[in-house]
Design the sequence.
């Protein structure tokens, strides 16, 4: 008895205008350090403009619980907005850098107390970056 060949479902993403795009079949993505071009950063900042902060870092800074929640949010959404309040400028910089480094994400942009983090999903990327 032959086993039927099963192909993975199509991968979809949202374009800049909010329309759903089908990108074809999913492929295995190799794990490598993320380097984004300025064009890709600009595109991600445009997508992130309308986002609300999903992670709020308080006076305790980037604790283990905040890092775990950030990693989960990045896994689910790929692009998230993080808000840091109640810290001095140096502590805020350190907390955001630590958060990005410990989650393996890239800080796409930052204005004041708010930063935008991006981490490509290892199996099913939802955001298509321009080349």
Sequence:
């Amino acid at each position: 008895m032959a086993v039927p060949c099963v192909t993975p479902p199509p991968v979809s993403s949202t374009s800049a205008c909010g329309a759903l795009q089908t990108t074809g079949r999913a492929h295995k993505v190799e794990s490598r350090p993320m380097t984004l071009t300025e064009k890709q950063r600009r595109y991600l900042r445009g997508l992130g403009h309308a986002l609300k902060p999903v992670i709020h870092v308080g006076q305790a800074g980037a604790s283990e619980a905040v890092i775990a929640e950030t990693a989960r949010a990045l896994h689910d959404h790929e692009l998230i907005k993080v808000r840091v309040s109640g810290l001095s400028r140096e502590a805020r910089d350190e907390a955001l850098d630590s958060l990005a480094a410990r989650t393996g994400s890239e800080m796409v942009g930052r204005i004041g107390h708010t930063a935008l983090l991006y981490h490509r999903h290892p199996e099913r990327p939802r955001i298509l970056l321009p080349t």
